[in-house]
Amino acid sequence: MATSAVKTAGVWMLGLLWGLTACGGSPTPETPEAVTTQTQAATQAPLGQTVWLKACATQKFVSADRNLSTTAPLVANRDTAQGWEQFQVADAGNDFISLRVSETGLYVSADPNAGGQVTGFRTAVGDWERFTWVPFPDGTVGLKAKSTGQFVSADANQAGTAPLYANRATAGCWEAFSFGIVGGTTDRWVQIWSDEFDGNTVNTSNWAPNTGVHVNNEQQQYTNSGDNISVSNGTLKLTARLQSSNGYPFTSGRLESAGKREFSHGRVEARIKMPVGAGLWPAFWMLGNDIGSVGWPACGELDIMENVGYGDWTSGALHGPGYSGNTPINGRFYPAGGVSAWHVYRTEYSTTDIKWYIDGALVKTTPRTEVERYGRWVYDKPLYIILNLAVGGGYPFGMNGATTPYYGVPQSTVDLIRNTPQTMEVDWVRAYQWR
Q1: Per CATH, is 10-187 categorized as 2.80.10.50?
Q2: Which residues are catalytic?
Q3: What proportion of the chain, given as a percentage, has pLDDT over 90?
């Protein structure tokens, strides 16, 4: 804060009968230990599910075993489906899907500069990591890489190990795969905490209001009043009002989980909708829990979502020693339908990188190595969550240039808040760990 849709058209509607092959006939039935659930009549791609893939030609499982080589392609030569042979299927936008290796959390990629070599070691989803699921008449499926426009093939004649390359213009048995769902769960993210805001008061075991923060030339006084912080109809409401308090022209709300709910490496997300008006500054972010002893920015700050009153974009950023304030580690993102609609904003942070997602789609990855170009990595410790609605200040001013009637707040927004107090709503906040 410092200066699940389901496709019902197109190629996702597969009409699959999992377990058949494009070679003709049915494979020998088998039940690998890792597979506890197998669907026999799928009607759409298994978005959000973890699957194994079995090549028609070899009747072996596809593997992304990193112990083979970090530069070698995936191979279809495994007899069982363990972690290296399991892939999470996700929506990658515009009718494409991505495949994430369960063992590592990294993405399958088809590098056009290496003849479409299919590897499993990319940290983010770009065009090389997007694939189309193509249904075949016998119920198997092909994978067509966006990067090459070619089908993925497991041709055992290419080195005897059935390496995967996205280099075939047409599809036969080499390019056909059967698959099954692993374990009956979506992935290895395990939810460890949530606040669903189902009552009529703030849960004090999770949150405390912070009314003593005055930073960034912001123009609000935070309060613990029900006029500014309330829970009703299943959502948390942080409301900004044109109401003089402690020398500030506005009042608003800010909740923090410090000392109550703090999370080391994992995933944190919230479903939020926001008001629109230049200078309004809603945010969902995290701070290192050692801020009291080391101060800011040495504690580290992870901005999951910020908005400064523009209806079409949000931003995310990192602030730490050597990269604070106008930090070089930032990004601007454009949620479909605008910020006034409900969206799920999410971060995943580990010892190697930090990721930002909107509605399940990866929008930015920052590797640790990039951060360390500017300063120390300070995210290997518990972080606590902050939800707040600021008004005015340095970031809004940097975008709208308003100096009057208040810093970062133009007259139009003053009138907006005077006529109708503006509210940031939060449906829920959830935390997960990878297991």
Answers
A1: yes
A2: 301, 306
A3: 66
